[in-house]
Design a protein that fits this description.
Number of helices: 8
Number of strands: 7
Keywords: Oxidoreductase
Helix content: 40-55%
Protein name: NAD(P)-dependent dehydrogenase (Short-subunit alcohol dehydrogenase family)
GO molecular function: oxidoreductase activity
Radius of gyration: 18 Å
Strand content: 15-25%
Structural class: alpha/beta
Largest sheet: 7 strands, parallel
InterPro entries: NAD(P)-bd_dom_sf, Sc_DH/Rdtase_CS, SDR_fam
Organism: Nocardioides ginsengisegetis
CATH superfamily: NAD(P)-binding Rossmann-like Domain
CATH architecture: 3-Layer(aba) Sandwich
Shape: globular
Length: 258
């Protein structure tokens, strides 16, 4: 699928994997709507790549719809990358046997709301806009890539909420791809492993910590780079025969319990 001259939306685009995907989409000739809650970083990236910034909290359908409308007004919306997400760690029960020490239920709901429901909300709204596009030679009107995580398969201790949310993204992949096929829209999921993003901090201590983490990767023994993930995202968007698939990009890692 040729996305040159089209618009694209990337959620969570102000940093990390989302920013790398936005840059690569822009390099292919798409006008990218940088959708994020981080205004300063989002506006800076949009200026850098010739895109536009949209303030988007993915738990707000109103803001999701505004971003989709903004993209569709620029050019036909043909590519969407759902990269927005959060991850807080908490054990399911505490050590003192008290109900109050169990996993905070509101925290669990919040992770699901952002990572899973927010992803689906953007999918359903963006795909609706894509369904109005003129099809290409293959009959394709657009493509969507959702970002899951290897935690969907190898969830660690404390990742109940995060793994649930990412497992939900994996689980929706095939049924949603089947739903959207009638409108000529493809949907795939990319599941990253350990990726070098700002979540690990900066400085010598952070670098040492990342190097230690990288030792658990099968090969190469390092953290992945956002651009390496973004290249797979772009492949899933542009390869016309990629559909309904979940692809791990993780250096062969299988996460241990902790």
């Amino acid at each position: 699928m040729d996305i040159k001259g089209s618009s694209a939306i990337v959620t969570g685009a102000a940093s990390g994997i989302g920013a790398a995907a936005a840059r690569q989409l822009a390099a292919l000739g798409a006008v990218v709507v940088v959708a994020d809650v981080q205004t300063e970083k989002g506006e800076a990236l949009a200026q850098e790549i010739g895109g536009v910034f949209a303030q988007v909290d993915v738990t707000s359908t109103e803001q999701v719809e505004a971003a989709v409308n903004a993209a569709a007004e620029i050019a036909p919306l043909r590519a969407v990358v759902n990269s927005a997400g959060v991850g807080w760690a908490a054990r399911t029960i505490g050590r003192d046997g008290q109900f109050g020490s169990a996993h905070d239920l509101d925290l669990y709901k919040k992770v699901i709301e952002i990572n899973l429901i927010g992803t689906f909300d953007m999918v359903r709204i963006a795909a609706t806009a894509m369904s109005r596009n003129e099809p290409d030679a293959d009959g394709c009107r657009g493509a969507i890539v959702n970002l899951a995580s290897v935690a969907a398969f190898d969830g660690q201790i404390g990742q109940a909420a995060y793994s649930s949310s990412k497992g939900g993204i994996v689980g929706m992949t095939l049924p949603v791809a089947r739903d959207l096929s009638a409108s000529g829209i493809r949907l795939n999921t990319v599941a990253p492993g350990l990726i070098d993003t700002p979540i690990y901090g900066e400085g010598p201590d952070a670098e040492a910590f990342k190097a230690k983490l990288g030792e658990s990767v099968l090969f190469p023994k390092r953290l992945g780079q956002p651009a390496e993930l973004a290249s797979m995202v772009i492949e899933c968007l542009t390869n016309p025969y990629m559909n309904g698939e979940v692809v791990r990009v993780d250096g062969g890692i299988r996460m241990p319990p902790k």
